[in-house]
Fold:
Amino acid sequence: MKPDLLLLPGMLSDAAFWGAQTAALAEIRVTRVPHYGLADTIETMAEGVLRDAPDIFDLAGHSMGGRVAQEIVRRAPGRVRRLALFATDYRGPADAPARDAEAAQHDAMLARARAIGIAAWAAEWARGMVAPQRLGDAPLLSAVAAMIARHSLDQLAAHVRAGLTRPDFSGLLPRIGCPTLVCAGREDSLRTVDTHRAMAALIPGARLVVLERCGHMVAMEQPDAVTAALREWLSH
Structure:
């Protein structure tokens, strides 16, 4: 029987984000891509994933999904055989002013999405998610925008709330005992290489991989490189 691999999507993402990896790894893993519905906290998202998950599984998460993955490890470390964190972060807001600043930015983002509609907003937002070198890649941008636009304004608001109330995992990382991959896009302005380097340094034995010519949407921008990193991780 093939082991299970849970691939957690990030904000406004779905199974399409991990589509290349799901296909490429099908011969060695049963892959599952959970969805969060209207859950609006990282903790509630993790509860939902765990409720439907097998007893033991490998776990990879992207962006917001990486935070959900960390919460899963905090709640059920004995169920996670391996952990992979892609284009994500481990820190909560630095202080109240920082949280207020984030809230103001997110309020403006929600207002813009409500004003022009989710599809038009998705097309705008997608351009900030990929590496500058990929802005001329119409099929990539179209795929990212279509994925985002499959979500509702209510889901956008829920994901924003989850981000604003996110836990800080600084104390968890040194206690992670399973083989861990940390992966960043070199051109990701949202979740920088330095953040991933710090995260990997806190996790015992973690392996850091940096993907060149890659922004935030790592598995869609560099599918072969992400698949190769996952194969290496799954071999240990």
Observations:
- The chain has a mean pLDDT of 96.
- The first helix runs from residue 19 to 24.
